[in-house]
Amino acid sequence: MSNRKPYVREMKRTWWKDHPFYRFYMVREATVLPLIFFTICLTFGLGCLVKGPEAWQSWLDFMANPVVLILNILALAGSLFHAQTFFSMMPQVMPIRIKGKTLDKKIIVLGQWAAVAAITLFVLVLV
Consecutive 10-residue runs of the chain (127 residues): their mean pLDDT? Predict the structure, then answer.
């Protein structure tokens, strides 16, 4: 056995603030926080729907609170930001080839947004 101590590099809590790439990454990952709130609200809403009209109305009143509305708008903005960054990475991670030629990145990204728009329209028509 050796008496040498291994080198342990000091890591500050704010290590990610020093580089723009890491700052962007941390902001992107932080978009999950409002989405957690939205998911919890939606889960409680489903529970209130099962309990009856009074519980459902109390949930609707809670959802009409301005603070809750702002948090839900932040959740929507966060999910759109997350989707945009994911869609922009997709052509680099998994390039699509048709007849030996790589499909243009813009076409792939626009195709993904078109799919999101089509699914959203389909859901809105159902409701």
Answer: 83 88 90 91 95 95 95 92 91 88 91 95 94
Tokens of 81: 């930001």
The pLDDT score that the predictor gives to residue 1 is 62
Q: Backbone phi, then psi, for 109, in 5-degree steps?
A: -65, -45
CA dist 101 and 98 (Å) reads: 5
Q: With left for phi above 0 and alpha for psi between -120 and 50, is residue 97 left, alpha or beta? A: beta
Measure the CA–CA gap between 79 and 71, rounded to whole angstroms: 12
Predicted TM-score (pTM) of the model is 0.75
State the DSSP H helix or E strand holding residue 60, giving kind and residue range, or none if neither: helix 53-63
Which pLDDT score, from 0 to 100, does residue 95 have?
86
Give CA–CA dist 49/62, Å, rounded. 14
Closest CA to 95 of 87, 86, 103: 103
The residue whose two tokens read 């990475």 is 89
Instruction: Give the C-alpha separation, 77 to 81, whole Å.
Output: 6
